């Protein structure tokens, strides 16, 4: 039987392949550090591919459970850098959105994705193609495991007394921006998601200056589907795609917008900005305002 022309959530799970059933998270707090307006906790918990490592930033002075934002780090070929950049410890100050959101009253969680920072068993080497190929040969994908780990991070965070489990958002730049399109389709708990400079579709990736990121390689997907089919599934979420004019990873944004309109998809907005592959303050403020509106109780 051939696949349906319209992608469904069940069809997406089939396309991405199976994931291992997780066990108990067995979470522990490794340390806590007071910061400017929030406390940063280093936490660890079990996931099927190992032991997750994440920062959870909890705002000071909360008078009740707050919205939660999953903050996904970029790629940039910097495999020794993940959660630390979005929390402002290393890397670009413009990508410290987990810290900035915590200062605005959101609880944030920022794990290392598979192959980055604490999740890299080879230091700063690129192990993601190994992680991909070792799954493909047994009929699995790296993307499915990465998305499962998003859900497991949310499982940990929503169990915290500081978190309102009904107000969950997602934000990411570059690699994180790609995941911001997929995560709401995978996990229906996400009510608002912002993708910055990461919306390039498969059809525009067949060039040597773009190509395919290991985490996004899914056998057969581009023969029938593309990112707008994934975005159409996230009907319970408001999604903002921020696309920069001179950014190769924003290539194809206008066509995504047209195709979403033809599909009658109303929960996804595309915002075009000048500049290159960056997350400038004006775009971050746009993202934070969008998340705040989308997560209003």
Outline: globular
Largest sheet, spatial ordering of strands? 1-2-3-5-4-6-7-8-9
Total E-strand runs: 9
The overall pLDDT average reads 97
Task: Figure out the total of helices.
Answer: 9
Helix content: 25-40%
- Give me the CATH architecture, please: 3-Layer(aba) Sandwich
CATH class: Alpha Beta
InterPro entries: AB_hydrolase_fold, FrsA_esterase, Peptidase_S9_cat
Organism: Cellulomonas chitinilytica
Keywords: Hydrolase
Protein name: Peptidase S9 prolyl oligopeptidase catalytic domain-containing protein
Present the secondary structure layout.
Blueprint: H1 9-16, E1 28-34, E2 38-47, E3 50-59, E4 66-72, H2 83-86, H3 97-103, E5 107-111, H4 128-136, H5 142-158, E6 163-173, H6 175-186, E7 190-196, H7 227-231, E8 238-244, H8 253-263, E9 268-273, H9 281-294
Parallel strand pairs: 4-5, 4-6, 6-7, 7-8, 8-9
Antiparallel strand pairs: 1-2, 2-3, 3-5
Helix pairs in contact: 5-6
Protein name: Peptidase S9 prolyl oligopeptidase catalytic domain-containing protein
GO molecular function: carboxylic ester hydrolase activity; serine-type peptidase activity
Domain Peptidase S9 prolyl oligopeptidase catalytic: 138-285
């Amino acid at each position: 039987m051939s696949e349906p022309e319209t992608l469904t959530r069940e069809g997406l799970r089939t396309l991405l392949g199976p994931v291992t059933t997780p066990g108990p998270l067995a979470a522990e707090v490794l340390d806590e550090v007071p910061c400017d307006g929030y406390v940063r906790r280093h936490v660890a918990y079990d996931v099927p591919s190992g032991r997750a490592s994440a920062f959870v930033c909890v705002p000071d002075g909360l008078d009740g459970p707050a919205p939660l934002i999953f903050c996904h780090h970029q790629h940039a070929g910097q495999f020794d850098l993940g959660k630390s950049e979005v929390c402002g410890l290393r890397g670009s100050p413009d990508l410290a959105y987990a810290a900035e959101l915590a200062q605005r009253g959101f609880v944030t969680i920022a794990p290392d994705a598979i192959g980055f920072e604490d999740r890299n068993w080879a230091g700063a080497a690129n192990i993601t193609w190994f992680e991909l190929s070792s799954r493909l040969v047994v009929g699995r994908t790296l993307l499915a495991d990465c998305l499962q780990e998003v859900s497991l991070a949310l499982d940990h965070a929503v169990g915290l007394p500081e978190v309102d489990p009904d107000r969950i958002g997602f934000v990411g730049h570059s690699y994180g921006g790609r995941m911001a399109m997929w995560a709401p389709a995978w996990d229906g708990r996400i009510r608002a998601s912002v993708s910055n400079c990461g919306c390039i579709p498969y059809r525009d990736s067949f060039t040597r200056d773009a190509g395919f990121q290991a985490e996004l390689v899914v056998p057969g997907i581009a023969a029938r589907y593309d990112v707008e089919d994934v975005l159409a599934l996230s009907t319970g979420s408001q999604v903002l795609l921020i696309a920069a004019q001179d950014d190769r990873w924003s290539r194809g944004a206008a066509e995504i917008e047209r195709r979403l309109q033809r599909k009658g998809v109303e929960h996804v907005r595309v915002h075009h900005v000048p500049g290159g592959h960056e997350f400038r303050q004006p775009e971050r403020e746009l993202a934070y305002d969008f998340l705040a509106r989308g997560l209003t109780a």
